[in-house]
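ARCHIVE CARD
CATEGORY: sequence design from structure
SOURCE FIELD: tokenized fold
FIELD CONTENT:
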């Protein structure tokens, strides 16, 4: 293992341990057990339904991105690779699931790695845009100060959102920079560089196609549906913990805050980082620490366990191994 990879793993473990320590330090475990024991299973089932709806929207969105290059691509053929990638990301470091999705399923998806990588890029931008919009809406709804709560001013959130929209709608503005970087790679490694250029061209064409108003609007609508479904999961878990959770609407603040916390270096599955900031969001609106901790643990389990199990079973059934990227460009 390279020194940089070891450093990243170590840093992630340090952050995760720190946030787990902060959680353990402030929670009363007897109260936590009592809250969990009174969980309403019917609302947990409703949360699982919301989870399934959210992932169905994500699969449909990804399929829409790939249809230009693979017109006959089915929903079923997209579902397995997407769930598998989430499963691998949940248990292995370095976004290994994204690497797998880009290189291991090309035959099934009937497309190339360059196009899949472009779709992953757009997917991440759309998700980040939705989370930023939901954070802004939640902070406004609860009359919270942007800078005090989020650590950044409202102008930072607005500017970042506008930049994402600019990239999504006008990717042609950034193509000169990408071309320059590719030319540098060709000079350093001609064989790899020229093959990479082919994939870059495919990826850029995909970005330009997705940037069309009608196509991007559909992707944004699928993104809204996916994140609203995930928001319903957060809210259903809050309802499952009544009356311990006093303000169930706090779930709509916990979603963007907990999700953005996953950008902090951590372990696969975001153990500690996601939980601590989800708890912070819930307690900031008057919920008790014990109830907020129980809430964070349940939400985390519902977000982690279903895709890890279903994606893992898909990988086992199809005997797919993590690909080595270098094989894609071997001379």
């Amino acid at each position: 293992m390279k020194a940089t990879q070891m450093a990243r793993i170590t840093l992630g473990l340090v952050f995760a341990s720190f946030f787990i320590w902060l959680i353990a330090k402030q929670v009363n475990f007897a109260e936590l057990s009592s809250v969990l024991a009174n969980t309403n299973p019917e609302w947990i089932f409703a949360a699982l339904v919301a989870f399934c709806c959210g992932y169905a929207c994500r699969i449909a969105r990804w399929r829409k991105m790939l249809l230009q290059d693979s017109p006959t691509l089915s929903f079923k053929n997209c579902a397995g690779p997407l769930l598998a990638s989430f499963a691998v990301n949940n248990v292995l470091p370095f976004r290994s699931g994204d690497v797998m999705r880009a290189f291991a399923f090309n035959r099934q998806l009937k497309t190339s790695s360059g196009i899949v990588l472009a779709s992953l890029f757009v997917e991440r931008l759309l998700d980040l845009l939705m989370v930023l919009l939901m954070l802004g809406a939640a902070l406004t709804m609860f009359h919270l100060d942007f800078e005090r709560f989020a650590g950044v001013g409202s102008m930072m959130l607005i500017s970042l959102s506008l930049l994402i929209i600019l990239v999504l709608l006008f990717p042609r503005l950034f193509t000169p920079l990408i071309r320059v970087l590719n030319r540098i790679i060709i000079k350093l490694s001609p064989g790899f560089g020229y093959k990479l250029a082919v994939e870059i061209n495919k990826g850029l064409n995909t970005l330009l196609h997705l940037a069309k108003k009608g196509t991007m609007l559909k992707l944004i609508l699928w993104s809204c549906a996916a994140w609203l479904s995930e928001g319903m999961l957060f809210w259903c878990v809050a309802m499952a913990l009544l009356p311990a959770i006093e303000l169930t609407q706090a779930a709509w603040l916990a979603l963007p805050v907990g999700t953005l916390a996953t950008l902090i270096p951590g372990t696969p599955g975001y153990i500690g980082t996601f939980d601590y900031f989800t708890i912070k969001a819930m307690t900031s609106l008057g919920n008790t620490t014990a109830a907020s901790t129980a809430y964070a643990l349940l939400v985390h389990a519902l977000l982690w366990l279903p895709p890890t199990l279903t994606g893992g079973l898909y990988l086992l059934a199809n005997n797919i191994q993590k690909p080595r990227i270098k094989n894609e460009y071997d001379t």
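CARD ANNOTATION: Confidence is low (pLDDT under 50) at residues 325-331. Residues 53 and 136 are 24 Å apart (CA to CA).
SHELF: design records, drawer C
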